[in-house]
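Obj.: predict assembly geometry.
Materials: sequence records (below).
Method: joint structure prediction, all chains together.
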Amino acid sequence: MANELVREQAIAWAVRTGDPAFDGWEDFTLWLEESPANAAAYDAALLAVAEAAEVLPPVPKADNDDAVPAGGATRRRWLGGAVAASVAVVAALGAWQFTMGTYTVETAPGETLLIALSGGGEIALAGNSSIELDRRDTRVASLQRGQALFTIRHDDNAPFRLTVGDDEVIDVGTIFDVRRGPGGMTVAVSEGEVIYNPRRENVHLVPGQVLKQVEGGAGYRVATIPLDQVGEWRNGRVTFQDAALGDVADDLARATGIAFVAGRREADQRISGSVLVDPVKKDPRTVGPLLGVTVRYTGEAWEIGAR
Amino acid sequence: MTGLVANESSGLEEVFLANRDRLLRFLKARGAGDAAEDLLQEVWIRIAGRPSGPVSSPLSYLFRTADLLMIDRYRATVQAQRREKAWGETQDGTRPGVSDEPSAERRIIGQEHTRLVQETLDALGPRVSAVFRAHRIEEVPQRRIAEQFGVSLSTVESDLRKAYAALAELKERLDEV
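Observations (raw structure tokens):
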């Protein structure tokens, strides 16, 4: 079958071009020019292999099913060093994971997903985020990574419980935004009321309040936040209020799908400012003047630093 | 290409300019179509943003950059299609929401995906599986794998072809679900 032959050839080329020593690009071009089907078969083979490689645990070990790496970007270092940066951060799975009664919904950087909860309410998941839900109990969720805006129907008998690592947030019928980043967790409330760690700190948060964990897990502080900034990432804007550069880079990467990092020695520096996501997607350098930071392309990512 | 400041020291820019036509031809053959010129510009942006440093084979590096760009592009397209499909699924059905069982179960992903990939590789035998992991996970170049395993380079290539073929087949099966 002709298709089978094309596929075999495509796989053979994928094996060869995948090696850093490959230099037969002229021959490869000639093969591609034979038929448009060749490029298509090559793409399909490469994607299949890339996706498979990305779900394998970093340390080769069978029977280890809880070590799903978060993204494929680091895997591709030698595949082209500089090259892997911007678009390559695309995580493979913008879809459902499924195990037992719980399942995980994940987004790639730069994408958002709206999850309607049966029985009312919804969860808007920001880019590069992951949340675990339970098919049998729609009043529980666990934010594993990233950020989400929750719009929860009030039910006295069944409060909505969200776990974030070791912390718990109980909502009492409300709209609230939760973010899990390198600097700890942030909960901002837009409507209703939320209780943070009811069995420990038991902090009640009302609209316009934001709770930020202090880095290193040493407590928290509560500040005010303009209501229109709660969950504003859904409208394509990100605002930073006295935010650590590490968190800023994390948020920018999540929203744009572009690799942003903070300079190693500057991750704790704090800045304030606001940017629209779309222009940054077109040119990452625009965050420089808007946030008052330096922007430098390292070959792997866009590194932001204090000015 | 005005307005883009290149790096002085890497020499990639000179090689890029000297081989512009070859790269363009490659991008077209690779399926870029009308976007080939734009993508060539993207290649330029990527090498211009690269930190200076020696590149052992500049022309290969440029081809590889172009190839990866096309892979990323293909990947983004596939992902957009998937997203549309997933979105459509959440909108279907009598009960709105992710708890609609078919939408969750139709996609076997995550830990289940990991298990299937591992089974697929293990079924090919210990060496094929180990060669694949060494190359794709630990990023060992093929020649060094050949040395480590005491086999010829063509054996390594053949092992990788087997693994790739099996994984492509697995993906086809999963996409059909």
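Conclusions so far: Residues 102-228 of chain A form a domain with the Jelly Rolls fold (CATH 2.60.120.1440).
To do: check interface contacts against the pulldown list.
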